[in-house]
Amino acid sequence: MRTRGLLDSVVQGLATLGALVGVARLFGLEAKRIGDRDALPGHLPAGKGGYEMSFGLPEVTRVIGSFQDEEAALSAAKAVMAEWHGGFQVYSPNLNEEFFAVMRLPESPTRFWILGGGIFGQLSGWALTIMLTIFWWHPVAGMPAIAVPPFTIISFELMVWFGAFVGLAGLMFHARLPKFHAAPAYLDRFQLDRIGLVLGCEGREHALRARRLLERHEPDDILYV
Fold it and tell me: What is the pTM of this model?
């Protein structure tokens, strides 16, 4: 019962923390919102959904290509990887592993956090049950004090518990969450039905080259930010 009460307290604390973070995100954002089709300099609001894949984009002027056709966006991403020497980003309303392959992004290290958390939970479960048995000896009908089947249940539960929470912590760490500020060059359409390619530029000539590169793949729209 004490263990269940402790777990309930932890869950309630995490739920409260999540609610506070949500309130902070709701009232703490002061991003300057720009219309979806405006081509003015500034920061665009981050949407509530979608995925961001980055490749060394510097904080300079950006040219945004908006694509509805996924094949055209993939073709443009391949051309950017082959011909573009600056940084770029890809925004997509859903997770598309083909973009990861095109951009040659490394695999997420979050899986190592989950593995470490699971191993720690497994070992801590065995340590907890064995130490409790040693310090509070309670023989029952001649049964062995240290038994594998019942102790395995506790260690399995702690393995799942620590693996899940440590994996969540790793995900938030590597994804830099929570984000309280608007992401540059993000348009609301990128969480609906458009794929965005954002090319970082270092001047007018660089921006014109980026526009010509995107125009070859027939985007729905090209914006400057």
Answer: 0.60
Dist CA 83 CA 161 (whole Å): 46
What is the DSSP secondary-structure string of 25-60?
A: HHHH-------TT---SSPPPP-SS-EEEEE---SS
Contact predicate 166/116, CB 8 Å = yes
Sign of the CA dihedral with 219 first, then 220, 224, and 225 last:
negative
Tally of domains within the chain: 1
- In a domain, residue 4? The reply is no
Mean pLDDT of 149-159: 93
Q: Which domain holds residue 154?
A: 38-225
* 210 part of a folded domain: yes
Band of pLDDT at residue 32, cut at 50, 70 and 90? very low
In a domain, 168, yes or no: yes
> Residue 94 in 3-state DSSP?
coil
Q: Is-contact 62 184, C-beta < 8 A?
A: yes
Question: Phi, psi (5° rounding) for residue 62?
Answer: -125, 145
